[in-house]
């Protein structure tokens, strides 16, 4: 019986990890199929596909135009770079995500108790000490909220 529960836990940990990766990722390309209704709406027929989001073409156009001996970092346009925040428990720099304001190590520790209101050490936006005023539920200090909202467009 123990082997089944440990497999379930492993699957849940893996699923949680990949869900966090998806949430912290940016959408770079999206192509949606378009359909036309036929037979009084009982069926549909494919007509074309429309590119909804394409951040990759600018990236590759810039890469092809520049010298191949230039460092890779110079090829990344600003719209592809992540906004950085801070882990509310450790203070380490991480991608800004108000729904997941912790690094992986701190999140693994936090999820054992899963207390959204547990007082944490740092502001996710500024990284400054919060003296317990931040939590998983409210990761940004009140004084930084307006600036964080404008900077990260949420």
Secondary-structure element order, N to C: HEEHEEHEEH
Question: What characteristic shape results from the CA principal axes?
Answer: extended
Unreliable stretches covering 5 or more consecutive residues: none
Mean pLDDT value: 82
Per DSSP E runs of 2 or more residues, the count of β-strands stands at 6
Label the structural class: alpha+beta
Radius of gyration: 22 Å
What report would you give on this structure?
This protein has a two-stranded antiparallel sheet. Strands 3-4 form a two-stranded antiparallel ribbon. Strands 5-6 form a two-stranded antiparallel sheet. It has helices spanning 2-24, 56-65, 104-111, 145-152, and strands at 29-38, 43-54, 84-86, 93-95, 120-122, 129-134. The protein has 154 residues and is an alpha+beta fold. The chain folds into 2 domains: 27-75, no CATH class; 82-154, no CATH class. A hairpin with a 6-residue loop joins strand 3 and strand 4. The chain is built from 4 helices and 6 strands. It is extended, with a radius of gyration of 22 Å.
Quick recap of the structure?
The chain is an alpha+beta fold and 154 residues long.
Please write out the topology.
Layout: H1 2-24, E1 29-38, E2 43-54, H2 56-65, E3 84-86, E4 93-95, H3 104-111, E5 120-122, E6 129-134, H4 145-152
Antiparallel strand pairs: 1-2, 3-4, 5-6
């Amino acid at each position: 019986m123990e082997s089944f529960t440990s497999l379930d836990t492993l699957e849940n940990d893996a699923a949680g990890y990949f869900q966090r990766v998806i949430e912290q990722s940016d959408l770079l390309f999206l192509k949606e199929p378009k359909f036309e209704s036929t037979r009084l709406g009982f069926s549909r027929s494919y007509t074309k596909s429309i590119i909804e989001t394409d951040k990759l073409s600018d990236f590759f156009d810039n890469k092809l135009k520049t010298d191949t001996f230039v460092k890779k970092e110079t090829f990344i346009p600003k719209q592809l770079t992540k906004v950085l925040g801070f882990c509310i428990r450790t203070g380490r720099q991480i991608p800004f995500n108000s729904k997941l304001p912790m690094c992986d190590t701190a999140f693994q520790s936090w999820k054992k108790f899963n207390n959204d209101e547990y007082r944490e050490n740092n502001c996710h936006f500024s990284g400054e000490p919060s003296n317990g005023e931040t939590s998983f539920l409210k990761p940004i200090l009140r004084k930084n909220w307006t600036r964080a909202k404008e900077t990260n467009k949420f």
